[in-house]
Design brief:
Blueprint lengths: L10 H6 L3 E5 L2 E6 L3 H10 L1 E5 L6 E4 L3 H8 L12 E7 L5 E11 L2 E5 L5 H11 L6 E4 L4 E7 L3 H8 L5 H6 L5 E6 L2 E6 L8 E7 L3 H12 L4 E3 L2 H10 L35 H4 L9 E8 L10 E4 L2 E11 L6 E8 L8 E6 L2 E8 L15
Parallel strand pairs: 3-13
Antiparallel strand pairs: 1-2, 3-9, 4-7, 4-8, 5-6, 6-7, 9-12, 10-11, 11-12, 14-17, 14-19, 15-16, 15-18, 16-17, 18-19
Helix pairs in contact: 2-8, 5-7
């Protein structure tokens, strides 16, 4: 672990709960508190509490905020209603992905852009540069903002324990990819119904100085609802089951949105020019040379990032993420493969250190929760 790793405002809480740590994106983050399998299953069956304060928060304000973000990002942010959120990408002029991020519209002229941890400074700087000809202010608030997530089937019940009675209906009725300002545990927060686990859940933005109070209150309120603190190991296995990309694995400067299966995020219908449009727009109607696919193991051995995908001994792709699925009981992986081998049902092999193991191209997400309860599909 790097001695230069930054600590979040909740670091002492993680130490008190016996967390083991890892460096992630330049931050010292809890990898797990106990068994990562226990934490994974807790999120699927009850609720997990995550510290996501390593993520970035960039506030964009001003009369041209919407117009600017339509230029800076590939999606159409101007049509987004106040209180809503949108998943998008910030790309280079050559079409490579700098980061995937979520943007919240707080007001007509105010947006909160949330990049990934390791990319937060890069995204903030890219936004500042791209803002030079717009009447906007770009303020990196990452150092003064904490982010806590409550994810799982009982997440809403935990939040209701923390909320004022008069806000209960607001929380229950909050839609997916929407956000609202409320008080939790007596503290002002921005509450979003978003997440990275495939479960129902919430992400809570709060001033860093209040993070410990919120964390402790959430743990106490969650005791009756099976909530446990969870680390990055469970977060990674949960997001992979849900088929969600991780920057540096499925996304990077050497990938474009279309081969990553994120073509619908790119809005070529908006009139605004945007960075990367010249390269990306012609790709919208062209079959990518390679595609990101889901793989299910025929046997019990797991593929790992960097392993070759082969057909008849010839490399046709590379695994980007892989592990044994705790929920499903068999290994799954994401991989970039040549388009000729990307169709559902295609049989391939993964070279597991010199031993080819059979895998099948399958639909993602691997796991999808049933909103009305019952077993996952």
């Amino acid at each position: 672990m790097s001695e230069q790793s930054k600590h979040t405002a909740l670091h002492t809480q993680h130490e008190a709960h016996g967390a083991s740590f890892t460096d992630f994106g330049g931050w010292q983050m809890p990898l797990k508190y106990r068994s990562e399998l226990e934490e994974h299953h807790t999120v699927r069956k009850a609720a997990g509490l995550f510290d996501l304060s390593h993520m970035g928060e960039v506030l964009v304000t001003g009369p041209q905020a919407a117009e600017f973000l339509n230029y800076a990002l590939v999606s159409n942010l101007a049509v987004m209603a106040v209180g809503k959120a949108k998943y998008s990408l910030i790309c280079t002029a050559e079409g490579g992905v700098i980061d995937d991020l979520i943007t919240y519209r707080l007001a007509e002229d105010s947006f909160l852009v949330v990049p990934n941890a390791s990319n937060a400074p890069v995204v903030a700087e890219a936004l500042r540069i791209r803002a030079s000809s717009f009447d906007v202010a770009v303020e990196d608030q990452s150092e003064t903002t904490a982010l806590v997530a409550v994810q799982g089937p009982t997440a809403e019940a935990v939040l209701l324990e923390l909320a004022r009675p008069e806000d209960a209906a607001i929380i229950r009725e909050l839609k997916y990819y929407a956000a609202v300002e409320v008080d939790l545990a007596g503290l002002p927060v921005l509450l979003a119904r978003t997440g990275y686990t495939g479960e129902d859940g919430f992400e809570i933005f709060i001033g860093s100085s209040f993070a410990v109070r919120l964390w402790d209150a959430a743990l106490q309120a969650g005791e009756a609802h099976g909530l446990l603190p969870c680390g990055l190991a469970a977060r990674d296995s949960l997001r992979l089951e849900a088929g969600m990309p991780l920057y540096g694995h499925e996304l990077g400067l050497d990938t474009n949105p279309f081969e990553a299966g994120l073509g619908p995020v790119v809005s070529t219908k908006k009139a605004d020019d945007f960075v990367g449009r010249t390269v990306l727009e012609p790709l919208k109607d062209v079959e990518p040379a390679r595609r990101l696919v889901g793989l299910r193991a025929v046997g019990r051995r797991s593929a790992r990032a960097g392993y070759d995908v082969v057909v008849d001994g010839v490399p046709v792709g590379t695994v980007t993420s892989g592990l044994p699925s705790p929920t499903l009981g068999y290994p799954v992986a994401l991989a970039y493969v040549d388009a000729a081998h990307a169709a559902l049902g295609t049989e391939v092999q993964v070279d597991l250190r010199g031993r080819p193991e059979p895998f099948t191209v399958v639909q993602t997400p691997f796991y999808k929760r049933q909103k009305q309860g019952g077993p996952a599909s």
